Amino acid sequence: QVTLVESGGGLVQAGGSLRLSCAASGRTSSTYAMAWYRQAPGKQRELVASISRGGSINYADSVKGRFTISRDNGKNTVHLQMNSLKPEDTAVYYCWLPNYWGQGTQVTVSS
Description:
Blueprint: E1 2-7, E2 10-13, E3 18-26, E4 34-39, E5 46-51, E6 57-59, E7 67-72, E8 77-82, E9 91-97, E10 100-101, E11 105-110
Parallel strand pairs: 2-11
Antiparallel strand pairs: 1-3, 3-8, 4-5, 4-9, 5-6, 7-8, 9-10, 9-11
């Protein structure tokens, strides 16, 4: 069993920054990819960014140049640095490990 716990969400004005963190505990393996997804009201959950154990990274086009994903394999953590936030970034952000989801953390960007 794996538990993912996110932190770092909140309310920020447009143009501001937030840093999300996710700590994985339990039967984890640093060989897994980790990722952040988000789901806005009335919309489907979408991939924001993913990172392999080796550091290969993918971003959604909508966040390229603004968001940075990173991981610490030794601590089983993944982070999402979000800069230049826009109101359309408002969503619940979920940490993901294969077959597991975190509980989600709300990010609200006011205009």
